[in-house]
Specification:
Largest sheet: 7 strands, mixed
Order of helices and strands: EHEHEEHEEHEHHH
Number of strands: 7
Strand content: 15-25%
Radius of gyration: 18 Å
Helix content: 25-40%
Number of helices: 7
Length: 210
């Protein structure tokens, strides 16, 4: 599979599900359009990333699959990107404290022909609600001091120490990490109906015996 993303979290989720990956980052303009909704933004960027990478290919990978994704943290229609510095991270965490926000991931997956052209594709957006505890200033300062928030959208990583900030989620946990892997594997299976059972294989590989 070609993964059009440099995210180590997406790489790990796909690798743990049994996919052999080649990382080919997409170089596109990720600027948000005027009045563009967060869910529309990630859907568009995922599709543009997938096409940008596909257009460079001369041949397809062995399994013929290409996946691109983009994730946004948002609240009240406004996106929360990666903080510029520690003070900006504190500001974001103070804004998220005691409130519910949303994490949306746009995904575009393609089944490629041997020459790299697109034979079939699927696109979707997965959204998860995340609610934070009321955070004290000491908790925010301690978390910022770990350095973890500085390269994370929304200034937290739920798979790391940031899990201690989260009171609850409604939806797909892996989507908050960066990729809704359970839905994605099923979408990939719909693109390859005459091959192996991707879902069953991913369960066997990612199970507790692995």
């Amino acid at each position: 599979m070609i993964l059009a993303s440099q995210s180590p979290r997406r790489y790990e989720l796909l690798s743990d599900s049994g996919f052999s990956l080649e990382v080919v980052p997409a170089d596109i303009d990720e600027m948000r359009l005027p009045n563009e909704r967060p869910v529309d933004l990630v859907a568009r960027l995922a599709a543009e990333k997938a096409e940008a990478v596909r257009s460079q290919l001369m041949t397809s990978p062995d399994d013929g699959l290409l996946v691109a994704a983009d994730t946004i943290v948002w609240m009240g229609g406004e996106a929360l990107g990666k903080p510029e510095d520690a003070d900006d991270a504190r500001r974001m965490l103070e804004e998220l404290s005691g409130r519910t926000h949303f994490v949306s991931t746009g995904v575009c997956a393609m089944k490629l022909d041997v020459d790299g052209s697109c034979a079939a594709q699927t696109r979707f957006v997965e959204t998860t609600e995340v609610t934070f505890w009321d955070l004290s200033q000491a908790e925010i300062d301690a978390y910022v001091a770990t350095g973890e928030p500085l390269d994370k959208a929304g200034a937290y990583g739920i798979q790391g120490a940031g899990r201690l900030l989260v009171r609850g989620i409604a939806g797909d946990y892996s989507n908050v990490v960066g990729l809704p892997i359970a839905r994605l594997v099923r979408e990939l299976a719909s693109l390859t109906p005459n091959t192996c059972d991707l879902v069953a294989d991913a369960i066997r590989i990612g199970g507790p015996h692995a």
